[in-house]
């Protein structure tokens, strides 16, 4: 009788414990599922960015016309500093970047960076900071490697702000999810080829 009472009590405990465990696991799963993940970038896009360097001490504003081309492992920034000339920044996946200006006083320099072109899923593993309103856009906010705080529009996945830890803030004013890969007669990549010849 004592053994049957013990087994009955043990069975009841095991049953209740399994119910609690299943309930806890499903609760955890729904919590984990409710944390959004960053939207990967499209393979190609064009974006216009207004960038403010005031917090870095540079006191410079700039407009960036960014062309991202992951299939060809390249990006190009056409940068115009406040009241300045255009600076072209062509970046390749091997870490090589070319900076040049055109015209009679044109310049050209190269630099080597450890990081090449960011892949579309570069935000994988980012820490989710929550949801906020930024310049009228409802955004998910992420941070990655103490390098960037990334604001992404909730409904579309479009980037809205890039807030870098050095104080640089880039506001995206235009984002086209793709562009025609070939030919690119109006693309800065074609312009780059023309300017280099």
TrEMBL record:
Q: What UniProt keywords are attached to this protein's entry?
A: Signal
Lineage, top-rank taxon, reads Eukaryota
Q: Which InterPro entries match?
A: At4g14100-like
Query: Residues of the signal sequence?
Result: 1-31
Q: What is this protein called?
A: Uncharacterized protein
Q: Which organism is it from?
A: Carex littledalei
